[in-house]
């Protein structure tokens, strides 16, 4: 230990080994604590009073391709949850989100969407009591419409630690609802699409995963057929065998 | 000087670089990701991730789950983006994802390529974030953004190897 | 051969390194000719790992991850195999600093090491790879480094040869 370089190296080596050891210990303690607090089976939650609503959107930002009608869904819900057991000294933040899982068209296909999420930073804010909470996001499916399918709603959480692995889980509470269906009188709105100028967008080679719309009512179909000639072959819906 | 001595000295210096590189490549193969350790560069995932945090990725999951934090790159652009999966749709062949940064008001639709509505889980993802170290990556931000720092560090490494005989 | 330079008497590592460097000269004086087979093997293995790493680097620059995946796996596998071989070679020749042959064809292997803070040069001399004809000697650095830090070849050669002759006599 007679010169700076050797001393520096020795210190660095020691620092490295000790920090690895410390981190491993921290992670082990955190996980043990979480197991102890039974966080993977939080049953002090309830979700209910889900009232779904649906609307038709035509903008790309709401899932529409080429200004075709796209069904968007939102829900309102009540939520009670006590997530205080997720907070320990190694918890930096907890991300909670309300998801809805519903089936797709073919066997083995499934979808899961987030309607609402929230970042909880401290233990004091970890008790949630929401009444008639509006969903944060307007949700659309890969298909053109939700077809009134049944969805299972869950409250899921994600612990972001100060150091270590990200931890995920879901609470025991579940609820179900059926997606709202658009009333038939909306047909008038769909007919208007015929008069809209076909928007020819640049087809680049990297176009990915274009989802073909479901068979749509007659009047609009003709307009769309005119458009389709100019487009690249559109890919099949997710639940059928993809072309490429 | 003796050529054998010179070669031996060269080898001990080269060893530092070759072993570091081999470890990096092995990590990439094990995790199936071309960049298994990333440093957070933007604030779009705050307060979870800050600039300078180190993320450890894993890319051998069959499917991503809603709520997972993933790193993806849009085809044709080399910028990795770290965001959370907001929605997923899958069948037995593939999975499509929609992502959003926690600190952003809207989802990532505007970040994708033109006309791209979803990410493909198999081809667009660099990996999903499994673990996290705070702030230590700031050194690499300094190295990439501050030229003097980079060469200073390299120089220090070389000197320290040449001077050690233990 | 390194020209005589002042060695830091407080660094056991420096003392040992300097003595190692002077071994070939000392043994030449005792009638041995150095064999470079081990050194060359180590260098060759080392260079091949550098070559592989270099190749990997070039591939990494040129091709993207998915394309180069299996080549990378293969190259890494070869790298680790060679590293393993190097590990074994080094283990079997632990601390060997000199291998030479006498005019009569007798092989001498000299291993030398130091413990971290003791200024003692441990020397293990083996003849003809025979574990029975091995002697280990402890040569304090003080005996062949003078007060100012200069290496004394005469003192070292004398000290070394006295130990070697002990075994030589035993052999014959």
Can you describe this structure?
The complex is a heterotrimer of chains A (244), B (166) and C (172). Chain A has 244 residues and is an alpha+beta fold. Chain A contains three helices and nine strands, in the order αβββββββββαα. Chain A folds into three domains: 1-36; 40-178, Immunoglobulin-like (Sandwich); 184-228, no CATH class. Chain A has helices spanning 4-36, 187-191, 218-228; strands at residues 45-57, 70-82, 91-103, 110-120, 127-134, 139-140, 150-161, 164-165, 167-178. In chain A, the strands form two sheets. In chain A, strands 1, 2, 5 and 6 form a four-stranded antiparallel β-sheet that branches. A four-stranded antiparallel β-sheet of chain A has the order 4-3-7-9, with no helix packed on it. In chain A, a hairpin with a 6-residue loop joins β3 (91-103) and β4. In chain A, 29% of the residues are buried. Chain B has 166 residues and is of the alpha+beta class. Helices cover 35% and strands 25% of the residues of chain B. Chain B has a seven-stranded antiparallel β-sheet. Chain B is elongated. In chain C, β2 (96-102) and β3 (107-113) form a beta hairpin. At the A-B interface, α1, β3, β4, β7 and β8 of A face β4, β7 and α4 of B. β4 of chain A pairs antiparallel with β4 of chain B.
């Amino acid at each position: 230990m007679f010169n700076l370089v050797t001393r520096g190296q020795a210190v660095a080596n020691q620092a490295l080994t000790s920090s690895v050891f410390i981190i491993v210990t921290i992670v082990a303690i955190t996980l043990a604590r979480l197991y102890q607090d039974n966080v993977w089976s939080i049953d002090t939650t309830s979700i209910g009073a889900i009232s779904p609503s649906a609307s038709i959107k035509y903008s790309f930002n709401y899932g529409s391709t080429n200004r075709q009608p796209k069904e968007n869904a939102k829900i309102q819900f009540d939520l009670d949850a006590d997530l205080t057991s997720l907070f320990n000294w190694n918890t930096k933040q907890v991300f909670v989100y309300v998801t809805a899982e519903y089936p797709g068209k073919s066997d083995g296909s499934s979808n899961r969407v987030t309607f609402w999420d929230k970042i909880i930073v401290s233990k004091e804010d970890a008790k949630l009591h929401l009444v008639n909470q509006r969903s944060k996001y307007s949700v659309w499916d890969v298909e053109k419409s939700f077809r009134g399918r049944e969805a299972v709603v869950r409250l899921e959480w994600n612990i972001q630690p100060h150091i270590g692995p990200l931890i995920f889980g879901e609470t025991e509470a579940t609820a179900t609802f059926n997606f709202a269906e658009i009333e038939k009188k909306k047909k008038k709105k769909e007919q208007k699409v015929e008069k809209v100028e076909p928007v020819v967008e640049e087809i680049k080679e990297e176009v990915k995963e274009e989802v073909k719309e479901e068979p749509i009512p007659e009047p609009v179909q003709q307009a769309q057929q005119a458009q389709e000639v100019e487009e690249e072959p559109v890919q099949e819906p997710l639940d059928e065998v993809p072309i490429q | 000087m003796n050529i054998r001595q010179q070669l031996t000295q060269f080898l001990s210096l080269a060893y530092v670089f070759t072993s570091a590189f081999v470890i990096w490549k092995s990590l990439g193969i094990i995790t199936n990701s071309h960049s298994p350790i990333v440093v957070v560069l933007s604030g779009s995932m705050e307060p979870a991730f800050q600039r300078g945090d180190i993320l450890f990725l894993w890319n051998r999951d069959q499917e991503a789950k809603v709520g997972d934090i993933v790193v993806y790159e849009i085809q044709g652009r080399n910028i990795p983006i770290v965001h959370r999966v907001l929605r997923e749709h899958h069948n037995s062949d593939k999975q499509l994802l929609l992502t959003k940064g926690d600190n952003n008001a809207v989802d990532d639709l505007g970040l994708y390529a033109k006309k791209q509505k979803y990410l493909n889980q198999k081809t667009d993802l660099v990996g999903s974030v499994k673990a996290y170290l705070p702030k230590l990556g700031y050194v690499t931000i300094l190295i990439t953004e501050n030229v003097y720092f980079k060469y200073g560090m390299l120089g220090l490494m070389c000197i320290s190897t040449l001077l050690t005989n233990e | 051969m390194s020209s005589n330079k002042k060695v830091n008497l407080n660094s056991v590592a420096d003392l040992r390194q300097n003595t190692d460097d002077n071994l070939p000269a000392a043994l030449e004086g005792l009638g041995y000719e150095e064999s470079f087979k081990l050194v060359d093997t180590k260098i060759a293995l080392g260079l091949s790992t550098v070559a592989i790493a270099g190749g990997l680097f070039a591939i990494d620059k040129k091709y993207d991850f998915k394309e180069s995946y299996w080549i990378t796996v293969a190259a890494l596998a070869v790298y680790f195999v060679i590293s393993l071989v190097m590990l074994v070679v080094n283990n079997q020749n632990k601390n060997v600093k000199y291998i030479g042959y006498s005019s009569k064809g007798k092989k001498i292997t000299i291993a030398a090491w130091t413990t971290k803070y003791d200024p003692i040069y441990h020397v293990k001399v083996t003849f003809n790879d025979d574990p029975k004809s091995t002697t280990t000697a402890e040569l304090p650095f003080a005996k062949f480094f003078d007060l100012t830090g200069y290496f004394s070849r005469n003192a070292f050669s004398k000290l070394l040869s006295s130990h070697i002759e002990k075994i030589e006599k035993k052999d014959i």
